Amino acid sequence: MNSKKEIVSLIHDEFGKEEFLVSKANYNLIEVESDLWEFTIYFETKDSLSRVSELEEAISEPNPHFEATALLDKSSLNLNEGAVIEQVESWDENREENLSNVYYFEHASLENLKVEILKSDTEFIEALISGRTLINGSNGNKPDATVKTTPITFKKDKNLERSVM
Question: How many domains does the chain have?
Fold first, then answer.
């Protein structure tokens, strides 16, 4: 991590915004089939910077972590500055596999994933991440919280593979 604060915000539709400090962030790009690549990002949090009182009562020390994968073909492998990578649904119908995992106090998916690459080289990318997830069920089985980050530096991790299936 670098010296600037890397923060993930969970903006709950019903309760408001919580912020957590990112403690670890990695990414990888793996060819899984001919002309099919998985771009996987993973980040963990440690300290909460701000909490929502209703959720603080339910879970005192959450350490949310996030894993999300976007499926790319050869024409969309651009991980350079200015690239935007999107994965609308976290469920891959063709392979019948889940592409994301958000853990707050339960596992949920990350829908409408958007990765905006701000800087990159062979060892890292700096990106903004956003998406929607289900945290407390206030919207039934539909996402009820937005995930947004400040710029996060993701280190290349050649051993990182998608863990959710």
Answer: 1
Q: What is the mean pLDDT of residues 114-139?
A: 92
Q: How far is CA 160 from CA 48, 54, 133, in A?
A: 25, 35, 22
The number of residues in the chain equals 165
Q: How far apart are the first and last CA of the chain?
A: 28
Give the count of alpha carbons within 13 A of 47, CB side only. 4
Q: What number of CA atoms fall less than 13 Å from residue 87's CA on the CB side?
A: 26
From CA 131, how far away is CA 105, in angstroms rounded?
18
Distance of CA 146 to the CA centre of its chain: 11
Provide the residue range defining the domain that includes 73: 7-156
Using DSSP, state whether 74 is helix, strand or coil: helix
Output the pTM of the full model. Answer: 0.91
